[in-house]
Amino acid sequence: MSTTHDLRIPERAEVTPTPAPLLRVRGLSVSYAPPRKGTHLGTGAALRDADLEVRPGEIVGIVGETGSGKTTLARATVGLVAPAAGTIEFAGDDIGGLRGRARRAFRRSGQVQLVFQDPLRSLDPDLAVAELVREPLDIAGTLTRTERQQRVAESLHLVGLDPETVAHRRPRELSGGQRQRVSLARAIATRPRLLFCDEPVSALDVSNRNLVLNLLDRLRVELDLAVVIIAHDLSSLAGIADRVAVFYRGRIVEQGPIRAVLEDPAHPYTALLTASAPSIGHEDRLRPDQLRPAAGTPSWPADLGCVFAHRCPFAHDACADQPVPAVVPQAPGRQVACHDAVVWRERLDHPHPQKESA
Ligand SMILES: Nc1ncnc2c1ncn2[C@@H]1O[C@H](COP(=O)(O)OP(=O)(O)OP(=O)(O)O)[C@@H](O)[C@H]1O
Fold first, then answer.
1. What percent of the chain has pLDDT over 70?
2. Any signal peptide, and if so, which residues (predicted)?
3. Ligand 1 atom with the shortest distance to the CA of 64
4. By C-alpha distance, which of 195, 199, 175 is closest to 185?
5. Which of 29, 66, 78 to mutate to test the pocket of ligand 1 (most atoms within 8 A of CB)?
6. Which H, E and C letters describe 69-119, residue by residue?
7. The pTM is what?
8. What would the DSSP string read from start to end of 201-238?
9. CA neighbours closer than 13 Å in the CB half-sphere of residue 251
């Protein structure tokens, strides 16, 4: 039996004004392969029914395990893959619906840039740093030759590299941290308003990680950038992101202000992530073993109901076969997709009757 819980909280009397979103993604689904005959749109999609907003000057973290659809959201936003459903608005314009020449023109404008995961693979090994950073400006075609040269030098300075030292080097002649900075310089050369960084620090050692994360924080202020950081682990986002969206199997299962999400996760998967990362969360956080299904728990199909049901210790029949509400407002700025959002915690104190008698 399914139980429904009204998690809506009353409107607050005073609402702090927030700037209009720069990016507004609604019901976005992306499929790399056409849907199989007789199946609904979402089946097999890399991203399903995603809602996300990013405001100017904000850093939003997106976190989830490999293959959960994080990069797909970024690729759809920069126009590298067309949505199967849903809308993508950038600065009030519908960019998800752009096709052909219009889509290429938007990409060339460089207003939204994506820093790829692996600079060694994404940077052309035959080009020198100055050419790599200048290339997006050549493609945009809006600046003179002199302006482009100035912009290349400015962009390298902004990421902490000395143009004189690195301009003529090839990517293989740089350290991992320097290559990451060149990727960033290339991405900011067009002065984008929104930057997606795919795993910007996963290949770096701890000291370089902090340097690059601090650099992103500084760039967002100096260039009034909105930044989306894609990460595998919550801990690399904890000190830098304003908000976080948690992905699981192509769905956003929870999002909200990062501190609130880390300290009081409303989705069992987020709780499992925080429980598994001792450096974040708080003293009362749950233990991983409390958030894993007991032996003998049925293996739920993933496509019909909740994508996390097969790993969720609190799953019941409705989780297996009833669509999860896309968003359940639960607190200001927070959204969670779970049949039993928040109330699953009560089961920790009052175990399910079937389990007591087992
Ligand atoms: N070009 C592609 N063609 C076909 N399938 C793809 C393609 N790119 C990604 N996928 C599939 O789409 C799903 C989501 O992939 P995506 O790269 O968005 O995940 P991710 O969360 O970014 O993973 P990772 O952390 O490993 O980068 C995965 O099942 C992946 O195999």
1. 82
2. none
3. 21
4. 195
5. 66
6. CHHHHHHHHHCCCCCCEEEEEECCEECCCCCHHHHHHHHHHCCEEEECCCH
7. 0.87
8. TTTS-HHHHHHHHHHHHHHHHHTT-EEEEEES-THHHH
9. 26
pLDDT band at 288 (very low <50, low <70, confident <90, very high): confident
C-alpha 118 – ligand 1 centre gap (Å): 15
For residue 5, give both structure tokens: 């819980």
CA max distance for the chain: 78
CB–CB of 233/277 below 8 Å?
yes
Residue 199 has pLDDT above 70, yes or no: yes
Mean pLDDT value across residues 248-263: 92
The residue whose CB lies within 8 Å of the most ligand 1 atoms, and thus the one to mutate among 72, 75, 117, 273, is 72
Q: Give the 3-state secondary structure of residue 39.
A: coil
pLDDT band for position 152 (50/70/90)?
Answer: very high
Tokens of 357: 């008698």
Strand partners for 112: 194
Mean pLDDT of the chain: 84
Domain boundaries, the chain: 21-111+192-358, 125-191
Which protein residue's CA is at the shortest distance from atom 24 of ligand 1? 66
Coil, strand or helix at 178: helix
Radius of gyration of the CA atoms of the chain, in A: 22
Please name the fold of domain 21-111+192-358: Rossmann fold (3.40.50)
Distance CA 300, CA 315 (A): 9
pLDDT band per the 50, 70, 90 thresholds, residue 14: very low
* Mean pLDDT value across residues 223-241: 91
* Nearest protein Cα to ligand 1, atom 7: 32
Residue count of the chain: 358
What is the mean predicted confidence (pLDDT) over 69-88? 94
- 136 burial (CB, 10 Å; 0-12 / 13-18 / 19+) is buried
Contact 140, 134 (CB under 8 A): no
CA of 86 from ligand 1 middle (Å) equals 19
What per-residue confidence (pLDDT) applies to 113? 96
